[in-house]
Amino acid sequence: MTPDDLRARTKSFALRVVKLYRSLPRTADAQVMGKQLLRCGTSVAANYRASCRARSRAEFAARIGIVAEEADESGFWLEMLAEAGIVRMALLKKLLEESKELTAIFTATQQSVRKRS
Questions:
Q1: Where are the domains positioned within the chain?
Q2: Does the pTM of the predicted model rise above 0.70?
């Protein structure tokens, strides 16, 4: 996957998170969890974009680590929305799979960069 492919993929993930957030019920619990998901889900794309402008390998590894953490946290909030009965898991399945794949990609990238340094 090229950096441009990942840039598009993370942006698509962020947009899907935004759409999910807009569809959540207006209950306090759904909004609190939804805002957490909104923050970390959009952060994946923003921080990946920033990592592409890193000035050193160390900075790149640090920023990619943040991307991996945010993708993983997105998965956590998706699971919470499902397990709390706010959104059916069937509706979240593809988004949850994408968060897991992005977490794996960026974790592996970070480890690879650290090994080379």
A1: 3-116
A2: yes
Separation CA 74–CA 23 (nearest Å): 17
CB within 8 A of 115, min separation 6: which ones? none
pLDDT at 88 over 90: yes
**What are the structure tokens assigned to 31, written together?**
């909004």
3-state secondary structure of 10: helix
Task: Answer yes or no: are the C-beta atoms of 10 and 52 closer than 8 Å.
Answer: no
Give the pair of three-digit tokens for residue 9. 């993929």
For 31-40, write each residue's pLDDT tens digit. 999 999 999 9
Helix axes 3-23, 57-83, angle to 10 degrees: 30
CATH topology of domain 3-116: de novo design (two linked rop proteins) (1.20.1440)
Torsion of CA 32, 28, 75, 89, to 10 degrees: -170
